[in-house]
């Protein structure tokens, strides 16, 4: 009786250890799914656990291409050669294709005794596999692929093995579904941002069409501002907002009447009061739009001056956002170089001297220094 009891305890202990190992394996897969957006990386973690916990010689994931409706090799582990990587199965074709089409586990426990014709017979022969199990990867009712495992020797699994195989397949399906959702989200976001930027460029072009004398100015100052901002160490993520702000720097002029904006002569004091409201108009127009709020620095602040004498808020020194400080120099540079109905464009040397003379009053001295360095570098590069 004692020996029987001892034997039962050994079996129970082995069962407990096995269940703990299974739980740990599933936990590692959960961590991989939660911690990485790289599907290949996640699937490699999954296959390591599949191979270890199911005690198989090799494992692979074939994913369903939604366009071709074919199962294609994605990742594999434990294979001697690369033949598996050429796997491309139509739904219903071969063992894996049947598993996907019939939405059930398909198996051959001993190919040596089984006459089932194999689509991938050369692959099985090269690898020396005699046992195969394939089960569909189903998430939210959709088949996304197949999990396949292989053995070099005949193998008849028990219910616990089959249950674990099913659970691992479910985890794999979740990983694939999560990655698909993320990819779709990225694609949707890319389309959305492209639509945003097209809208911004459309607004910018409309402003240029309204004010013919500054046509082309917006594109030029945007390109130059991005170069200078990069040189100033502004990150690529922030440059997205700098670009939008530069394109929309004069969006507030939509609120300025044509008889003032398009006047060929100098403006009266009263007209200047109206003109100087355009940064405030820009703020009122753009601030309710969430995705344009981070781009407000240039439209709202590019007429502020280093010494505090600018408008609309009289900001001083580093109270003025860096992007606006950089843009202010570019804006003046392009404006003075360009012909106007009431004056010809200045020579480059004269504009440089003008900007130097305004360093510390109109412009941030460090920004001027960086700007001049870039101008000289570009001149030397062009020469």
Q: How is the topology of this model organized?
A:
Layout (H helix, E strand, L loop, with lengths): L1 H34 L3 H15 L4 E8 L4 E8 L10 E3 L3 H9 L3 E3 L12 H7 L3 E9 L2 E10 L7 H52 L6 H15 L4 H12 L10 H4 L7 H7 L2 H9 L10 H5 L20 H16 L10 H10 L7 H18 L1
Antiparallel strand pairs: 1-2, 1-6, 2-3, 4-5, 5-6
Helix pairs in contact: 1-2, 1-5, 2-5, 6-7, 6-12, 12-13
Shape: elongated
SSE pattern, N- to C-terminal: HHEEEHEHEEHHHHHHHHHH
Strand percentage lies at 5-15%
Sheet having the most strands: 6 strands, antiparallel
Average predicted confidence as pLDDT: 86
Helical region count? 14
> Could you name the CATH homologous superfamily of the largest domain?
GAF domain
Strand order of the largest sheet: 3-2-1-6-5-4
Structural class from helices and strands?
Answer: alpha+beta
Q: What is the CATH class designation of the largest domain?
A: Alpha Beta
């Amino acid at each position: 009786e004692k020996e029987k009891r001892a034997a039962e305890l050994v079996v129970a202990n082995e069962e407990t250890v096995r269940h703990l190992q299974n739980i740990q394996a599933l936990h590692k897969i959960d961590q991989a799914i939660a911690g990485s957006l790289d599907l290949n990386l996640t699937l490699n973690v999954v296959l390591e656990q599949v191979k270890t916990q199911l005690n198989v010689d090799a494992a692979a994931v074939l994913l369903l291409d939604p366009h071709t409706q074919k199962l294609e090799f994605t990742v594999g582990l434990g294979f001697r050669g690369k033949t598996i990587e050429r796997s491309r199965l139509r739904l219903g074709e071969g063992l894996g294709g049947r598993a996907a089409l019939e939405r059930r586990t398909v198996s051959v426990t001993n190919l040596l005794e089984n006459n089932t014709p194999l689509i991938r017979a050369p692959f099985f022969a090269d690898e020396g596999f005699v046992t195969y199990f394939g089960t569909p990867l189903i998430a939210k009712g959709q088949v996304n692929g197949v999990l396949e495992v292989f053995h070099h020797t005949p193998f008849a699994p028990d219910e616990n093995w089959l249950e674990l195989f099913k659970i691992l397949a479910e985890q794999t399906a979740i990983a694939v579904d999560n990655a698909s959702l993320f990819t779709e989200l990225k694609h949707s976001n890319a389309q959305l941002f492209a639509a945003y930027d097209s809208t911004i460029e459309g607004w910018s072009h409309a402003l240029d069409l309204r004010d013919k004398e500054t046509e082309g100015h917006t594109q030029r100052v945007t390109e130059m501002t991005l170069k200078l901002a990069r040189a100033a160490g502004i990150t690529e993520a922030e440059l997205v907002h700098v670009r939008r702000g530069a394109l929309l720097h004069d969006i507030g002029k939509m609120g300025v009447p044509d008889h003032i904006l398009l006047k060929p002569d100098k403006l009266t004091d009263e007209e200047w009061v109206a003109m100087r409201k355009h940064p405030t108009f820009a703020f009122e127009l753009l601030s309710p739009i969430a995705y344009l709020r981070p781009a407000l620095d240039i439209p709202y602040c590019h007429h502020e001056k280093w010494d505090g004498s600018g408008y609309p808020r009289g900001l001083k020194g580093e109270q003025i956002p860096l992007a606006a400080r950089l843009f202010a120099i570019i804006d003046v540079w392009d404006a003075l170089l360009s012909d106007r109905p009431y004056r010809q464009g200045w020579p480059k040397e004269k504009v440089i001297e003008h900007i130097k003379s305004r360093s510390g009053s109109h412009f941030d001295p460090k920004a001027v220094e960086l700007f001049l360095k870039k101008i000289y570098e570009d001149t030397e590069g062009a020469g």
